[in-house]
Write a structure and sequence with these properties.
The chain has 149 residues and is mainly alpha-helical. It has a domain of 81 residues. It has 7 helices and 2 strands; from the N terminus they run ααααααββα. The protein has a two-stranded antiparallel sheet with strand order 1-2. Helix 1 packs antiparallel against helix 2 and helix 3 packs across helix 5. The longest helix has 13 residues. It is elongated and about 65 Å long.
Length: 149
């Protein structure tokens, strides 16, 4: 009779480099890069008035990363997204090991309105000025379709 090695999936403490969990070429890696470096999210800054008093806020880029990745995985409830941010390595990497509460996520999504419409107009992503030359290079090399959402 064949003997097999035992597979143990019980909980463990592992040293994990979160940045290396976002593998190049994957949706989550592209999402992370775009929201951190290429897409201008300055329209969200007006939402916060906590520079002198109040608690620090979660970065809108992080919340947007987590929400968009969750939606791409079929997770649409704020409680489900919160759970994923605590339990799944890719989500933990996207949110930097800070698990936003489900009420924070729900409020963020429910108030996106015009801010998100300015960033993701149909077929257009607003890039920061420093990235426009790179976007033109992509457009010239791959055509207009490369820049469409």
């Amino acid at each position: 009779m064949a003997r097999y090695k035992q597979i143990d999936t019980s909980p463990r403490f592992l040293a994990v480099d979160l940045e290396r969990q976002l593998l190049p070429g994957t949706f989550e890696h592209a999402l992370n890069h775009l929201l951190d470096h290429a897409i201008d999210l300055s329209c969200f800054d007006a939402r916060f008035r906590n520079d002198e008093t109040g608690a620090s806020a979660y970065r809108p880029a992080m919340l947007l990363k987590v929400v968009l990745f969750a939606y791409s995985q079929g997770i649409v409830s704020s409680r489900g997204i919160e759970r994923a941010c605590r339990e799944h390595v890719t989500f933990i990497a996207l949110c930097g090991a800070s698990s936003p509460h489900f009420t924070t996520l729900a409020h963020f999504v429910s108030t996106l309105g015009e801010d998100i419409a300015r960033i993701f107009r149909p077929g257009v992503v607003h890039l920061r000025p420093a990235r426009l030359d790179r976007a033109r290079d992509v457009r010239d090399r791959w055509g207009e379709a490369a820049l469409k959402c």
